[in-house]
Amino acid sequence: MKIVIIGGVAGGATAAARLRRLDEKAEIILFEKGAYVSFANCGLPYYIGGEIMSRDALFVSTKETITAKYNVDIRDRTEVIKIDKDNKKVLAKDIETGKTYEENYDKLIISTGSSPFVPDFEGKDFDNVFTLWTIPDTDRIYNFIKNNAPKKAVVVGGGFIGLEMVENLSRRGIAVTLVEKMNQVMPPLDKDMAKLAENHLVAKNVNLMLEKGLVKITSNGKNVVLDDGSTIETDMVILSIGVRPNSSLAKDSGLKLNQRGGIIVDEFGQTSDSDIYAVGDVIEVENYLTRGKTMIPLAGPANKQGRAVCANVLDSYNKEAYKGTMGTSIAKIFDITVASTGLNEKMLNANGKIYKKDYFISLVHPMSQAGYYPGGLPMTIKLIFASNKKILGAQIVGYTGVDKRIDTIATSIHYGGDIYDLSQLELAYAPPYSSAKDPVNFAGFAACNIYEGLSSPMRYEEYLKNTDKYVLIDVREKMEIMAGKIEGSINMPLTTLRETINTLDKNKEYVLQCAVGLRGYIAERIFKQNGFTAFNLLGGYRTYCDIT
Ligand code: FAD
């Protein structure tokens, strides 16, 4: 069997290695148009920022090590410029010599990835305007900083690569402006959770400009002009405004693509041609939860698809289905970690047919470790669940321990878990690592309370729209109020609430608020059991401060 692979990084290199492990006899040829295979694209921002000090560390494997370990015929600096599916061959071009030649295949795997999207605008070709995707991109940015010692930079686009660049340029002592067209950074998060990241960026002296679009770059790359007419002076610009699948080869060969240019594959990675498979950023995937078609360019899915497809390419193994992608992702932004999995509210509201108005959220602020153990820091967990109790998604922002909590929830979603599973999950505990009730359990408890009607959460925005209707009661202690309170709230500390509650009018509706939501819930229970109509302000005073 002769297998040709196009693309030699995440999906392609993974496929080459596994194919060899499964079939010692197969002829495996891997074409990569760049000079490097299997490099750590996810690590590039950290090399630029100096966190990864050695450039060599970016090369997870080299042509030589892969060849020696896996006996793969690697043709680097060689671009596949045509796929002739009818005759089962590709046309390859040696980039250095310009020489072209044909290579036939029995099976073809396409893992050509995606590329940064750069719209056509004035000034995009100045020498100080960059995108970051490859090793040469990284070298250009790194050398520009080394040779020109820029003082100011503009990053356009607040997705995870843009944010990683904001942090890493700041590490280099560069004053960074982040320009984002949407009203929030980090698209996988809802605005309320993204606000936590935005607050942190501002605290780290990033000049954050939301709802502003880049129009052009003028004055030899020194001025960035925005759609509100303002101009930002800069020494360099990083464009990070999304990616597009590298699917022109597939399209020209007649393979079926979706509207966004993603190659359509079945669960086995097979394209519309039975001898051609595709994996990674270039394919359309199924959303693990909705089963709807989507595109999710992430390294984890690309690697897993690259692995799964091998058994399907080689007829002699049981077929392996790829079960879909739920978009579990994580990013470090200075001192905080921002992570999400599954569906967010934006998706749910857009996805009217399935979930609209038929989901609930819980929001808690637990500590990463036991409260009494040094080093514990708070995190915010927003959990989204359906009326059938199933977990739909989660978003977590915090300082430490965010990664294991998002992975726990992602795992629960993978196995079809519900909020009761989260409340009962037995998770490892000792004070340096967690609490006897882990933050994930807490998120589950709060969700179960909502599901059972023990608690009726209310968002601050909802209260704000109806301040005439609701009486806002702050149940924190008097000392705590001195540090700040929500305008219009009445202080009735929880510790004396059982004595003071009888002074209240049962015909009114009450919103209870504490620091993070826990005492608000206790107060809500007292209110409800005394015949009052009561709600708990979601996330308490902390969430109010975060979002206002
Ligand atoms: P790639 O790994 O991009 O490989 C595609 C390869 O195909 C490229 O090397 C390209 O040169 C080659 N190629 C394309 N066309 C041809 C052709 N015609 N002939 C020959 N070769 C061709 N994902 C995460 O999940 N977490 C992260 O933290 C993260 N951080 C990232 C940071 C950066 C700076 C970047 C750039 C990406 C990051 N990603 C991250 C995304 C992740 O790297 C991609 O989702 C993943 O690499 C996709 O794998 P792939 O195999 O589809 O494509």
UniProtKB/TrEMBL annotation:
The organism's place on the tree of life at top rank: Bacteria
Residue stretches making up the Rhodanese domain: 466-548
Molecular function per GO: oxidoreductase activity
Keyword set, alphabetical order: FAD, Flavoprotein, Oxidoreductase, Redox-active center
The protein's required cofactors: FAD
Family that this chain belongs to: Belongs to the class-III pyridine nucleotide-disulfide oxidoreductase family.
Protein name: Rhodanese domain-containing protein
Protein source organism: Peptoanaerobacter stomatis
